[in-house]
Amino acid sequence: MLEQSKAFSGFSVDDIEGARKFYGDTLGLTVTEEHGMLELHLGSGARVLVYPKPNHVPAEFTILNFPVDDIDVAVDGLAARGVTFERYEGMEHDDNGVQRAEGPPIAWFKDPAGNVLSVLQEG
Q1: How close are the terminal C-alpha atoms of the chain, in Å?
Q2: Residue 24 belongs to what H/E stretch?
Q3: Exposed (0-12), middle (13-18) or buried (19+): which is 86, by Cβ within 10 Å?
Q4: Which helix (H) or strand (E) holds 75?
Q5: Sign of the torsion angle spanned by Cα atoms 117, 42, 35, 81
Q6: Among 9, 22, 25, 31, which residue's Cα sits nearest to residue 112?
Q7: Residues with Cβ < 8 Å from 67, sequence gap 6 or more?
């Protein structure tokens, strides 16, 4: 029934302008705005709706994962743009915040609204 639908995901933020700057300027994504909401255009061709919500509560799970060829280059580049990486209790992280012990190398960070994102190395 919906297999042909061009479905998309979305999440809330408490500050649309702050989100636009973060996703567009800091992360370098193409961001469009319409009707007070943002649309993130991802490299895969997918789109994600970002909408304002006055009583926004940050997601406690990863809402967007960005696969990269070289996590160290990605982490260094994001850190140079002011991104701070999360360190979770019970997990081993290297000096840059990359967790390498389980699964692919991954580093988590938050957007200005507190939503969790990640970069992870493919391959």
Answers
A1: 34
A2: none
A3: middle
A4: helix 71-80
A5: positive
A6: 22
A7: 119, 120, 121, 122
| Among candidate residues 83, 84, 66, 78, the one with its CA nearest the CA of residue 121 | 66
Residue in this structure with the two tokens 């029934």, named with its chain if needed: 1
Q: Residue type at 93?
A: H
pTM for this entry: 0.92
AA identity, residue 118: S
> Which token pair is 47?
């789109």
In this prediction, residue 102 carries a pLDDT of 83
Residue 31 has what pLDDT? 98
Tally of CA atoms within 13 A in the half-sphere of 61 that contains its CB: 2
Q: Which residue in the block uniquely carries the two structure tokens 């997601």?
A: 59
Token digits for 64? 């967007």
pLDDT of residue 122: 87
Q: Which residues of the chain have pLDDT under 50?
A: none
